[in-house]
Amino acid sequence: MTMDKIEWSGRIVGVQPRIRLSRSFDQRQHGYQGYVLGIDGKCEDESGEFLVAVGKAAHEKHQFRAGMEVSGLAVPVPDPRLETAGLYKTSGIKVLKGTENEPSAGPPFQGAPPDLETYRDRGHRRLDARTYDSKCLTCMWGCRMPVEMIIDHWNPSHKRYRFETFCYGPKSCSIYRAGPARKVPGRKGMSYTEEDWVDEDATAHRDMDD
Question: Is pLDDT above 80 for 1?
Answer without folding.
Answer: no
